[in-house]
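Is this the right way to post structure tokens for a design question? Let me know if I should format differently. Anyway, here goes:
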């Protein structure tokens, strides 16, 4: 059974940090996964891509809105992709979703984790 399980969300004050984790199971992380992405969806807005990383090679992309504040990384031995979020702002408040695309083209989503930035 394919599962993507996010964790690490919560309530944080502006300027604070959180580290999100996405644990991938049900298929080979090293050999079957092409790219893992973090998306977010704020209330009343469309889902947007935050960052992604290729499992092989590590090439990554991050959106301009989070550049220099968020860092995506992977730890293949743990089948996990991380999103380190620093200097959080109220506009970062959203549900954050993990997405994985397999090399065969299948897409998988996690259930999401809430991040709330508020004083």
């Amino acid at each position: 059974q394919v599962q993507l399980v996010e964790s690490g969300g919560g309530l944080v004050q502006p300027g604070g940090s959180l580290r999100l984790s996405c644990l991938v199971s049900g298929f080979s992380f090293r050999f079957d996964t092409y790219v893992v992405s973090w998306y977010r969806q704020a209330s009343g807005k469309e889902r947007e891509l935050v960052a992604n990383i290729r499992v092989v090679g590590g090439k990554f992309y991050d959106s301009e809105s989070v550049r220099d504040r968020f860092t995506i990384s992977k730890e293949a031995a743990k089948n996990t992709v991380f999103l380190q979020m620093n200097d959080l702002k109220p506009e970062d408040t959203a549900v954050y979703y993990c997405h994985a695309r397999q090399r065969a083209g299948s897409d998988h989503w996690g259930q999401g984790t809430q991040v709330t930035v508020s004083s």
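Format looks fine. Someone answered above. Worth noting: Helices lie at 29-32. The longest strand covers residues 33-41.
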